[in-house]
Specification:
single chain, 212 residues, alpha+beta, Nuclear Transport Factor 2, Chain: A, five-stranded antiparallel β-sheet, 7 helices, 52% helix
Length: 212
């Protein structure tokens, strides 16, 4: 059974590897392949990253990931029909806290990245397409390959990721079910509190070598 934890961990292994501002207007598959090589090189050579320095990993995420994920759209899709019930202030906080949760989840997984490799599938894209799916597989020693698809759309600032699907399960839809349950029980503010608690828990979690 695919759980939310498994979805996040699998997504994070690949998502951090191919998002680089220098390639923002490049075709999505070229963007993916080129930046993967760069980040894998960093992971292999940076001693602090290899030792699980989360502060250093957060910095890497800030540079490589944040400019290329549309967190506003992701949050709106994840909150679903309840988005319209949130105040402007609540919407702003929801986006911030959802972003923090994803970044810290990605960072924790990146700190543990070891021998996985990423294979990119041929991109089915027409010249005038503005919404595409970049298909990849995460291959790990001793385990089955994990298919990961990135839903991306083209903006004036380059291609942005707005959803990630692992083994056919959408991250946004998976979150929507969880968020909906929380909102029905505790309201929008309850969801914000839940996101803050999860994000803080990840931020204070152990690094790869067991230290905090």
């Amino acid at each position: 059974m695919i759980t939310l934890k498994n979805l996040l961990h699998a997504a994070s292994m690949a998502a951090l590897l191919w998002l680089n501002p220098a390639w923002a207007m490049t075709a999505p598959d070229v963007l993916a392949k080129t930046t993967t090589q760069e980040v894998l090189s960093i992971l292999k050579t940076d001693k602090e990253l290899k030792s699980g320095n989360l502060k250093k990993v957060y910095d890497l995420v800030e540079v490589k990931v944040l400019p290329h994920f549309d967190f506003d759209r992701m949050t709106q899709l994840a909150v679903g029909r309840y988005w319209q019930k949130a105040s402007p202030e609540q919407k702003q906080v929801l986006v911030r806290e959802f972003k923090n949760l994803l970044v810290r989840t990605y960072s924790s997984a990146l700190a543990a990245f070891t021998n996985q490799t990423i294979e990119f599938k041929p991109l089915a894209m027409k010249p005038d397409d503005t919404d595409v799916t970049v298909k990849t597989e995460v291959k790990q020693p001793g385990g089955q390959p994990i298919p990961i698809d990135y839903s991306m759309y083209k903006t004036d600032f380059g291609w942005k990721v707005y959803d990630v699907s692992i083994d056919g399960v959408s991250l946004v839809i998976n979150y929507r079910a969880s968020f909906g349950n929380t909102i029905r029980q505790s309201g929008i503010d309850g969801l914000i509190s839940m996101l803050e608690a999860k994000s803080n828990s990840l931020a204070s979690g152990p690094t790869k070598n067991g230290s905090k």
